[in-house]
Amino acid sequence: MRLIPVAAAVLLALPGAALADTPLALLKAAMAERLAAMPDVARHKWNSGAAVEDRAQEARVVEGAVAAGQELGLAPEVVRSVAIAQIEAAKLVQSALIEQWQAEAAAKFTDVPDLAAVLRPAIGSATEAIIGNLKPAAPALRECAGAGELRAVPEALASYAAAWQVAADGVIAAQGGPARTACPG
Fold it and tell me: Count H helices, E strands: the chain?
């Protein structure tokens, strides 16, 4: 699976080796890992004919994230907003790919990781890492420099820039960070 290389690529792409283990860098890597799983989720849904939107699964993800966040002392509304932003970003990637495959009349994919056994556990781990790094990254996210760093699209996810912006802006807003227009540059 290509999830780990994407997270590693994000960490390596951050300026300065010391940043590779900061809460902000770890948060960004976890977000990238989660979003990087979405093409495989889209392939699974394409093959099975499943809808992109799965409200029951989305509710389970949000509830699990809120519960994990409460154990870490995070406000439920913050975690809920972050989880919803990640889900919305994921659906953007999946929808764009499925629309492309429909236009191309693509065949079913081979070698797609199993959704239940492989993809959801990986996505769950990435979501837990996002939640686990929210509190330590919060001070950086409230500053223009940190918000800008999170908003910078990881090179490995350049094809999904719009989805990344949804994911990043959701995290920044939930942490009380600056709007895009509030920061110079």
Answer: 8, 0
